[in-house]
Amino acid sequence: MFDTRDRKYMRAAFALAEKNVGLSSPNPSVGCVVVCNDQIVGRGWHEYGRKDHAEVRALNQASVQSRNATVYVTLEPCSHQGRTPPCAELLIRSGVRRVVVARIDPFPKVSGRGVKRLRSAGIQVDVGLMADRAGEIIESFACFATTGVPLVVSKVGMSLDGKIGSAKREGRWITSPESRAYGQDLRLRMDALLVGIGTILSDDPELTYRGTRPKGRPLLRVILDSRLRTPPNARIFDTVSQNPILIFCKNGAAVSRRRKLEIRGAEIVAVPREKEGLDLNAVLQELAKRNVLGLLVEGGSRVHWAFLNRKMIDRFSFIIAPIILGGENAIPSVGGKGYRATAQAPKFRMRRNFTVGPDIILEAYPSYSRSIISPWRPQ
């Protein structure tokens, strides 16, 4: 169905979609190229602030050369009226001959309908070219569109023996500068970043996005803090005007502490408390109300355990530095009570592993992951 030219032009469309990562949320990142006489005559990608979808921008650039052209798009063209008119209708009016789609849109209002509309108009539509790559780019969007809550990605930098810090906690970094750049890329792709109060008290982090690529939505900093122990003079408040802070506490937390944190610019939301901590389902539901598509959990070890124990992690990114800390009192990457037997432990499959500087990155998916690119899903 697909030849080398199809792959060449779809790669060009993906280059545009990747260029847009961090600028399209809460919409998916999409790239599109229009090809006429074996030449790209139109290019487009979607930025949420500009409204026009990738297909609209590409077709506008191609103008009359769209007639009888082939269009390569990384995600199925929309068929419904949303913030903008349906792209499928524009493709039909433009007189294109063929549309190559990497992946069907998981959004229920679109899923399959865009392709059906194009085919009903006599346009040849071929689906499935580089579908895995498309899934990587829209992973957060797809999870939110199909489940109603954010994709949860846990990230931990650790030693070869699974420790994230020594007993003395001297030095903040275990992994390399290259791996920290990888961490910034994760922050680019996610809408919110979550830590526990332990991380705030021990590390006093800023939790900002410091990458070189532009990010459209401010990174929402989320703190799980049952008793509102976050210090009002913590460094995280230095950037609250650019990056909002959302603190989850238990019902009945001290009003005086709440007022101090609100004066500093934080928003406080009370959620029920369960036996082992705050109700994480309530946390995810609250984030969903704010159109958070992807949540990056950065710790500490008790927080990783809380999400893992509740089967709420969709992907775990382990950044492994080539060192060994050892010691009975060193801090494990995942804390909490742990599982009593290996039979109770969740099973993971690796989707990718690669090196960044001297470190190894493992991207692992639990069997219950909701991700559309989970290696547990039938191929």
Describe this structure in words.
Helix 3 packs parallel to helix 4. About 30% of the residues lie in helices and about 25% in strands. The strands form 4 sheets. A 9-stranded mixed beta sheet has the order 11-10-9-8-14-6-15-18-17, sandwiched between helices. The protein has a 5-stranded mixed beta sheet with strand order 2-1-3-4-5, with helices on both faces. Strands 7-16 form a two-stranded antiparallel ribbon. With about 375 residues, it is an alpha/beta fold. A hairpin with a 2-residue loop joins strand 1 (about 30-35) and strand 2 (about 40-45). The chain is built from 11 helices and 18 strands. It is globular and about 65 Å long. The chain has helices at about 5-20, 55-60, 85-95, 115-120, 130-135, 140-145, 175-190, 195-205, 255-265, 280-290, 300-310; strands at about 30-35, 40-45, 70-75, 100, 125, 150-160, 165, 190-195, 220-225, 245-250, 265-270, 275, 275-280, 295-300, 315-320, 330, 350-355, 360-365. It starts with a helix and ends in a 13-residue tail after the last strand.
The description of the largest β-sheet is:
9 strands, mixed
Number of helices: 11
Question: What is the rounded distance between the termini?
Answer: 18 Å
Tell me the radius of gyration. 23 Å
What level of helicity do the residues show? 25-40%
How many strands appear in the DSSP assignment? Answer: 18
Q: What is the global morphology? A: globular
What structural class is derived from the secondary structure elements?
alpha/beta
Instruction: Calculate the mean pLDDT score and round it.
Output: 93
Strand content: 15-25%
The H/E string reads HEEHEHEHEHHEEHEHEEHEEEHEHEEEE
| Low-confidence region ranges | none
Adjacency order of strands in the biggest sheet: 11-10-9-8-14-6-15-18-17
